[in-house]
Amino acid sequence: MTPAFEKLQKHLKQLPGLGYRSAERIALHLLVEKPARLPALVEALEEAARTVRRCERCGNLAEETLCPICADPKRDANVVCVVEHVPDLVAIERSGAYRGVFHVLHGKLSPLQNVTPADLNFSSLLARVEQGEVSELILALSNDVEGEATCHYLTEQVHARGKDVSVSRIGFGLPSGGGVLYADPVTLKSALDGRRSYS
Length: 199
Prior knowledge:
Elements: H1 3-13, H2 20-33, H3 38-51, E1 53-54, E2 61-62, H4 68-71, E3 76-83, H5 86-95, E4 100-104, H6 123-130, E5 136-140, H7 145-160, E6 166-169, H8 185-193
Parallel strand pairs: 3-4, 3-5, 5-6
Antiparallel strand pairs: 1-2
């Protein structure tokens, strides 16, 4: 293979979810099978790099100052769902079960990986709390040690500001159609802790 092909393959391989074979297949598809698609792809990438940025309020993807969700007057701006990453926001939006707004932290606290509060998108969220814009925070963070630590940190920071903000965490448990037999201990503990009355 040529040096230019290998360079393209190397860059494609760095994308999440792509291994050596997948990167090779995509590179061959673009250069050999469908070369007519390449200019449009390059143009779309360049346009996205020029125009897409973080929403100044929530950290979601935006082309204006605010993302479409923050700019939508039909959303309940007092209820804020806090997520780790933009794909988490997309998954919740796809469910159609939530009509509030979001806040994207772009990660979670992790002392082992040297991720501190200064590395995450906390300041704009706490500013929203201080300005009285938030009545409820829904923490939709991972069900792991780092997610738990991030939830505790956020809760402490919100309460330290003396605001009357309700803080809740999404429930975790057995997936729809899943059984107890194959669930891991953490999932079972979360399912038991998050139980609700059935009477």
